[in-house]
Amino acid sequence: MGKGRVRPQDEWDENQYAYEDEYDEPPVRQVRRRPQRPQNTQRVQRHYAPGPPRTPYPTRTLRTPPPRRRRSVWPILLGGCAIGIFLTVAAAAAVVFFTFRASQGSSVPVIGGIGGGGTQTFTHEDTQQVTLPSLTQMQICDKIGNVSVAVDPNSDAATVTTTKIVHTGSKADANQEFGRIGVSVQQSATSIQNLSCAQAQASSTAPTPSTTPTSSGNGNGILSVNTNIPDSDGLIHGSSNAVDIRILLAPKFLSGASAPLQLNIEAAVGNVTVDGLSGLLNIKGSSGNVKVMHATLISGSSISTGQGDVAFNGVLAAPSDTTTQANFIIRDETGKLDVTLPSTTNVVLSANTNVGTFHSDFAINATNSSGSASYRGPLNSSAATQSAAVLTLDVSTGDIYIHKRAG
Fold first, then answer.
1. Cα-based angle 299, 300, 302 (whole degrees, multiple of 5)
2. Where exactly are the structural domains of the chain?
3. Beta bridge partners of 275
4. What is the pTM of this model?
5. Residue 354 phi/psi, 5° resolution?
């Protein structure tokens, strides 16, 4: 058998080692074929016992998220407005505080003013005699500073004392500021132009010397005191200067007058004190306390302030005819209102406080509702005949106190 001969399969199976020496190289190993399955043979199907039924997975239900609520913009707007109002009120209160401190001679600087660190307080006082035989009118206008008017029973004269207050770094600067502050004291037996602190002064002027009137013998006299402080207009003052006014009167200047006294006081920043006067009193403060003691008010009198306390201790001169209308007004925007009257006072009381409480020594029943209190009716219910005179006590934010004084 030559090389490359392929032996039959059966010979290879039976004599796979017999012809080994006849070949130079190992014979090619044949892969045994897998016998084919007869065509008529059917594949046996195996049957398995059925298993337990499969538990289906639970169906997952998807939840629909609730609709998102739209946030209202009103809370944001209202919150912003509240913050803005709070900051505005705080800034205004700070300005009023600094200005008021400056008027009291303090070295606290005022916004926009000349005060500041290293400044000193300098004062200049000037006193003038009142040469009028009597007084029927007094007009006082002071934008920054304290005002005091009192009757001195131990005196036989009348004087007007003005004290200029400045805050500077040196005496030379203080003298310059003193010259810029104008103080006008006028005396006349006829008439004087009405003064108003609400009207800005045209320019800074030096103090106007007082004029001595010729005695007319008619028992009339008008005294006017006006201050002019540069840069003192508006809420935010550009000056830390101030002027205090103090007037002392002998009783004869009032008793010798031909008519009841008319007193007009306007004070923007500072305290006002009136003691021992009787007549038609119109006192208007803006930032500061107002105190009227030992006074007699006639119909048409008005006492008020914007920021501060108001105190009155005196008598209401109601007309002798109880059917005649008379009005007395005591008002306060923010602060305590304290009134002391004789126990026999016969008037109709009209009292109201928007935010506050009501306290009275007189037997009256005030109506309280949601933090406010009000009352209108007789102050003295024991009076035989009720008067038509009306006393108005009005407070925006604050408490009302009415005290009863014997007599």
1. 120
2. 76-258, 289-407
3. 150, 293
4. 0.68
5. -70, -40
